[in-house]
Design brief:
alpha+beta, DNA-binding, 49% helix, 10 strands, disordered N terminus, homodimer, 5-stranded antiparallel sheet
DNA sequence: TGTTAGCACTCTTAAAAGATGAGTGCTAAA
DNA sequence: TTTAGCACTCATCTTTTAAGAGTGCTAACA
């Protein structure tokens, strides 16, 4: 049966696309009559009924109740996303909006991520997630100490991606600020250009040799350690928890509560995003989600890079009935844009 | 009529208190029979009915519909809060929880505020707002420059309350890093101990005299300006948007959406909190709120201080039917506690 | 053989009608 | 002044009814 290869003939595909387009727009189960009226498929409702029955048998559509129209299944959406989806590029107005938005709101680099999340939510009316770069991927640029008082110094750590972290440290007994400055010189010489990750594992040994003083070395070690620590975790920015209420799927407070509580589990959400990291755009639909919390949600992720280095992930999370075309092209655009915006903070 | 002075005799007060206690707990309009059963007031439902009718005439209670029990009015809550409220101190377990919470989660000072908001929401199941100190109130401690590359320096600004802000700046043409260091010395000598606010207005003139170079002075000025800018605004931390869904008042998505959208207007919320700043605990109930968005909400605020200096405000925002006793004592406790926690970051 | 019209049937949703019950207000008696 | 009693009001819950959208199947048609 060569039919097997192309399970869906051209008309079935047209019907499927029409059903999904309709459902995405209306959030109501779609019936044969309405379908025949809106999209002119050139056949009668009865024929469409037959096609829909076939599509249901094949698993692309679902019946909620014996009566009442059909709704796409995960498999249906999958086929739609993989082949039927109409391109819906980001409009010029939207591009202009995005540009203006960044220009007016972003000062510090963490605001880039915050505003990116907000922007994605504003445009897609869905929840957005932005996983900001692990600083471990970033390269060490320099570490400086500033005297604070007789017992403390401020450690300022910089990476090549424009991140600056600071931390107040107690000086060990007997140490002078000059010792710290000497240490900084040694450290900077040895570590410049290394990724933060590799610092942890290798480069410290060399420093040990150069700093003769055991006690000072130990505190240097713990200082770097602690300075790195705060930069180590990826940060997750969340947007659109208000916007999502506009989706009819969340007109029930219980569902909202459930979703918000899930989103609050930051580690879980990070894991999910990390698991989705692939190259470019990745769409995970309903049942395809491993986590049971998201069996009726879809997640679209895009990973952004800088000079070939993986930096992070941006994502849209919403009901399976989602404007995939729009969300996907937006993420793609934001993806490229984000790289540019970050570069402004990069030197 | 001496009665006028004490509009409510002792029994009326007991009835009012019982009604409010009941309503706060159940969120259902309370009727005379149920009241007589639960609280033993020693009189029959009929008598209570009469008392309630009086209380309604006097404006302390309200009728939703001809039938169905009574609900407290803003005036009723006001009387309750001012005189009837049963003390409900923070329990030892809660104190322990708070202590552990801070110890395990707080590293940087901004986390203090973030976690304070989260904690208040967790305990009161209501929205919490924390208005973090204006850094303008804080005292300038020192400003340091760090070389970044040939064209840029990193500016690090410290205040006595432990805030550190940093910012990357372009060096003006012809300037050397040594110039910046010289400038830092001048600036530090002149500004140490001044509040950030006063710096803006006064102290800069002296610096002008000491730094002879006009061009350098201008850039110094803009540097300080920009470094201060980011610290100038008060920051608002918001917590409990998920927790609020547990209140029956927010079982309607439209109300939730409305509230969340209002909360998103950061400047509006800041203004409201600023307007509420008084000494110690302040309770604003329902209609007493000037902003129309909060006519059926209550806001409890507490301001926290450090060494007599106003630092900021913490607040609980919820439906008028709120556990005032609990929220008030919690805020009072957090208030003191916050001062201690902040002191850890203070030197 | 694929397409279509027709029709019985299903099931949801909305509106109407009734039943229940909590609560009030008033009157009259204690 | 307090209380019991009773008629009355409304919200709410359940049941009933009606309407409408949609399906599935059969038979006719091109």
């Amino acid at each position: 049966m060569p039919e097997k290869l192309y399970e869906l003939d051209e008309r079935k595909q047209r019907v499927l696309k029409a059903v999904i387009d309709d459902y995405i727009e209306s959030a109501e189960p779609v019936g044969s009559r309405a379908l025949a009226r809106k999209h002119d498929l050139g056949v009668s409702p009865a024929t469409i009924r037959n096609e829909m029955a076939d599509l249901e048998m094949l698993g692309y559509l679902q019946h909620l109740h014996t009566s009442s129209g059909r709704v796409p299944s995960s498999k249906g959406y999958r086929f739609y996303v993989d082949g039927l989806i109409p391109p819906k590029p980001v409009s010029d107005e939207e591009k202009a909006l995005i540009d203006r938005w960044y220009k007016s709101r972003v000062q510090r680099i963490d605001q880039v991520f915050e505003e990116t999340a907000r922007l994605i939510s504003a445009i897609t009316k869905n929840i957005s997630l932005v996983l900001a770069p692990q600083m471990t991927q970033a390269q060490f640029r320099c570490l400086q100490f500033l005297p604070l008082d007789s017992r403390r110094v401020i450690t300022v750590l910089m990476t090549d991606a424009g991140f600056i972290e600071n931390k107040i440290l107690e000086m060990p007994d007997g140490a002078e600020f000059e010792d710290f400055q000497r240490m900084a010189a040694v450290i900077n010489e040895n570590l410049a250009g290394h990724t933060l990750k590799s610092i942890e594992h290798h480069a410290l040994a060399q420093i040990r040799d150069e700093i003769r003083d055991e006690g000072l070395y130990d505190s240097a070690l713990s200082i770097i350690q602690r300075a790195l620590d705060s930069g180590k975790q990826e940060r997750l920015y969340l947007g659109g928890t208000t916007k999502m209420l506009e989706q009819p799927e969340y007109h029930d407070v219980e569902k909202v509560k459930h979703m918000l509580m899930t989103l609050e589990e930051e580690e879980l959400m990070k894991d999910i995003l990390r698991a989705h990291i692939g190259d470019g755009l990745e769409v995970t639909i309903g049942q395809e989600n491993e986590d049971s919390h998201f069996k009726d949600s879809s997640i679209i992720t895009a990973t952004y890079h800088l000079d070939g280095e993986l930096l992070g992930t941006i994502a849209v999370l919403g009901p399976t009935r989602m404007e995939y075309a729009k969300a996907m092209s937006l993420l793609e655009y934001m993806n490229n844009n984000l790289t540019n915006v970050i570069k402004r903070f990069h030197w």
